[in-house]
Design brief:
By secondary structure, this protein is of the alpha+beta class. The chain contains eleven helices and five strands, in the order H-H-H-H-H-H-H-E-E-H-E-E-H-H-H-E.
Length: 259
C-alpha cells in the first residue's frame, strides 16, 4: 500500500477508535499540532454519527427523553460505523439497547428503536407496484387455492410489549410526550410503505397468524385454514375475503402468483 493509502487507512481507523492513536504520517502546522488536528476530526466524526441517529430515531428521542444524548454517544462509542453509508449505522441500535447492561432493563427503548428503524428502512426501500383488486378478478375460482399473495418486500411485523407506536405518532405529529405503558398482552405492529408515506398499525390477534402466513409465502388455501382454526370452517372464507379487501385497500400487497 502506498503512503497515501496507508495514511487513509490509519486515519479511518483512528476516527473509529475510542481513543486517539499516534499517527506518525500525520503532520501539524502553525495553527495546531497533529494530535489536536486529529482530535477535531475524531470529535466531529462522532457528532455526525449522532446527528444521523437523531434523524433516524425520532420516537426513541421522545421516549428516552433526557438520557437520549448519552444513549447515542454510548452506541457510537461501542459500535463504530462499518458501512460506507452513514445511513446504515443505526441498524444495530435496537440490539444494543436490548443487550447493554445500562439499557436492557428498559425494554421499551429497544422496541422503540426497532419500530423507528423499520419505518426508516421502509421509507428508503425501493418503490414497488401495488396489486389492485381488479387484477384478481380474472383469477379462475378453481385456482384460488394455490394463489400466493406477495406483500411488499419491506413490510415488517414487530412484536412489542409497550405502547411505542404512541410515541412514534406523537413524534410524527409534534404532540405531547405520552406515558410509557406496558401492554397487558404483547401485540404486533405492521410497518409498510404503499406510496410516499410509511404506514404502521396494530395487528389484531385474529389477523396475525394469517398475515404472518402471507408474509411467509403461504397459499390462499393455507390462509383460509389459519382462519378456520380460529373461527370455524364456515366463517373462514368470508373473513379471508374481508382481510384481502383490507390488505388491497391499504396497498400492502405487491403481486401474486400461482404455485
Amino acid at each position: 500500500m502506498n503512503g497515501l493509502g496507508t495514511l487513509q487507512k490509519q486515519l479511518a481507523e483512528a476516527l473509529r477508535s475510542e481513543s486517539l492513536p499516534p499517527l506518525p504520517l500525520l503532520r501539524g502546522d502553525g495553527v495546531a499540532d497533529a494530535t489536536s488536528r486529529l482530535a477535531v476530526y475524531h470529535h466531529g466524526y462522532r457528532i455526525r454519527l449522532a446527528d444521523a441517529l437523531r434523524t433516524e430515531f425520532p420516537g426513541l428521542a421522545l421516549l428516552a427523553d433526557r438520557p437520549f444524548e448519552g444513549l447515542l454517544h454510548e452506541y457510537v462509542a461501542a459500535h463504530p460505523s462499518t458501512h460506507f453509508n452513514i445511513r446504515w449505522h443505526g441498524e444495530g441500535l435496537a440490539a444494543f439497547l436490548a443487550g447493554d447492561p445500562a439499557w436492557r432493563d428498559r425494554p421499551a427503548l429497544a422496541e422503540m428503536a426497532q419500530l423507528d428503524w423499520a419505518i426508516s428502512t421502509a421509507f428508503d426501500a425501493a418503490d414497488h407496484a401495488i396489486l389492485r383488486a381488479e387484477e384478481l378478478a380474472h383469477v379462475s375460482p378453481d385456482t384460488w387455492a394455490t394463489l400466493r399473495l406477495h406483500p411488499l418486500p419491506h413490510a415488517r411485523l414487530l412484536r412489542v410489549t409497550h405502547n411505542v407506536d404512541a410515541f412514534r405518532r406523537a413524534a410524527d405529529r409534534g404532540g405531547a410526550r405520552p406515558r410509557v405503558r406496558q401492554l397487558r398482552q404483547p401485540r404486533h405492529l405492521l410497518v409498510w410503505r404503499p406510496s410516499l408515506e410509511v404506514h404502521y398499525r396494530a395487528v389484531s390477534r385474529s389477523e396475525l397468524p394469517v398475515l404472518q402466513a402471507a408474509l411467509d409465502g403461504a397459499t390462499f388455501a393455507t390462509l383460509c385454514e389459519r382462519l378456520a382454526e380460529r373461527h370455524g370452517a364456515r366463517s373462514a372464507l368470508p373473513r379471508m375475503a374481508e382481510l384481502l379487501g383490507q390488505w388491497l385497500g391499504e396497498g400492502l400487497v405487491g403481486s401474486f402468483d400461482m404455485s
